[in-house]
Design brief:
The protein is an alpha/beta fold and 422 residues long. The chain contains 18 helices and eleven strands. It is globular and about 60 Å long. GO terms for molecular function: 3-hydroxyisobutyryl-CoA hydrolase activity.
């Protein structure tokens, strides 16, 4: 079934077949049997893989629906590959002018299915994880440099990989039930999916605070710091979606004008972390994780602030290795393009998957996702045992003759701007 045969208002469709020029990158990815081929995706309407991303066609608008509600729409390998096919195909299809991305159920997307990745690595090879992240990062890059407008409707949970398929897009619409977080350091990972690009561009040192502590932000905070471009009340989201489906334009100003009609300017709660930017900047501007924690502890007796206490607790519970490589990654990201951030993060995540310098990722998955005892035994267990040389090693090429750096296609744009509305 070709995209050119699709008609408006035909409802939910299967994933599209790729168009000519789909690219060597994805073709090479499909050599792994772990990833379904385009023909496999189209073969059976009842197949679980093809149902994980649904496509609704309305005129020149395509709505991509993340469809694993029981898993909070966590991104599986099939979903990532399916989304990549959709984005690449629709960019070349002249009759498609606007993409809407949303989740089915109470989450937009709770992140990548890291439990699936960890289990597959244990059962097979670290290269499964490398392939998963290679595909995901390529998708993030395509979204970040996309030539057509993308509107992400961020209802419910938006974490990790869910941020990767939305924050890089042009329009991000939050609402009163949106919950955003990058909780990777508690899992023995680091904020990836190009997060070192967008976190490093938040006001002051707010990105370091969000990325290291895994702090949760609501919709108003997302709008205020620039992670969201709009805030639309939940009871108006369906009206917005219907209006967008009637659009016949790729002009971002026209799309923005439609979203503006349903938007409002929410007030920050008194307890919002954005009202504590003086403390956040003072503490999270420090050069090391040890100095950040020390400064927070010095602040704690005098300010009697829940934010400070919660930040200290989060940092104390997180993987020491993850904290150090995360801080280094965000600081590097301040001076890099989105493509450079993704290439570096790919090196980092491959070292994590291989367990070259620490196996905290697998221990975090065990403690948080499998056994759920929430008592990970990090190795090394303390920050002073994670030396600068080890941190630097995460940024190096992987010592494997079959490993390759992330090779990204040449694109005309270098990533969306983060515009705070404080």
């Amino acid at each position: 079934m070709s995209l050119r045969n699709w008609q408006p208002n035909r409802g939910v469709q299967l994933l599209p077949s790729p168009q000519p020029g789909f690219g060597v990158q994805l073709e090479r990815l499909h050599r792994s049997s772990r990833f379904a081929s385009p023909a496999d995706d189209m073969a059976s309407p009842a197949s679980s893989d093809s149902d994980q991303v649904l496509v609704e066609a309305n005129g020149s608008t395509r709505t991509l629906i993340l469809n694993r509600p029981k898993q909070l729409n966590a991104l599986s390998s099939a979903m990532v590959t399916g989304l990549l096919k959709c984005f690449t195909s629709y960019e070349e299809e002249n009759t498609v002018k606007l993409l809407i991305v949303k989740g089915n159920g109470r989450a937009f997307c709770a992140g990548g299915d890291v439990a699936e990745v960890a289990q597959s690595i244990n059962n097979d090879s670290w290269k499964y994880g490398a392939d998963f992240f290679r595909t995901e990062f390529l998708l993030n890059y395509i979204i970040a440099t996309y030539s057509k407008p993308q509107v992400s409707l961020l209802t419910g949970i938006v974490m990790g990989g869910g941020a990767g398929v939305s924050i890089h897009g042009r329009f991000r619409v939050a609402t009163e039930n949106t919950v955003f977080a990058m909780p990777e350091t508690a899992l023995g990972l680091f904020p990836d999916i190009g997060a070192s690009y967008f976190l490093s561009r938040l006001p002051g040192f707010y990105g370091e605070y969000v990325g290291l502590t895994g702090a949760r932000l609501d919709g108003a905070e997302m709008l205020a710091c620039g992670l969201a471009t709009h805030f639309v009340p939940l009871n108006r989201m369906s009206l917005l979606e219907e209006s967008l489906k009637r659009v016949d334009a790729s002009d971002p100003f026209a799309i923005c004008g439609i979203i503006d009609q349903f938007s409002k300017q929410p007030s920050l709660k008194g307890s919002s972390s954005l009202n504590r930017m003086d403390i956040i900047n003072r503490c999270f501007s420090k050069g090391t994780v040890e100095e950040i924690i020390s400064t927070l502890e010095q602040e704690a007796p005098s300010v009697s602030d829940k934010l400070v206490t919660a930040a200290i607790q989060s940092l104390r519970k997180a993987s020491p290795t993850s904290l150090k490589i995360s801080l280094a990654s965000i600081r590097e990201g301040r001076l890099q393009t989105v493509g450079e951030c993704l290439r570096r993060e790919y090196r980092m995540v491959c070292h994590v998957m291989r367990g070259d310098f620490s196996r905290d990722f697998f221990e975090g998955c065990r403690a948080i996702l499998v056994d759920k005892d929430r008592n990970p035994k990090w190795m090394p267990p303390t920050l002073d045992q994670v030396h600068d040389g080890v941190v630097a090693n995460y940024f190096s090429k992987v010592d494997d003759p079959h490993w390759e750096d992330l090779n990204l296609p040449t694109r005309s744009s270098h990533g969306r701007r983060i515009v705070p509305k404080l």
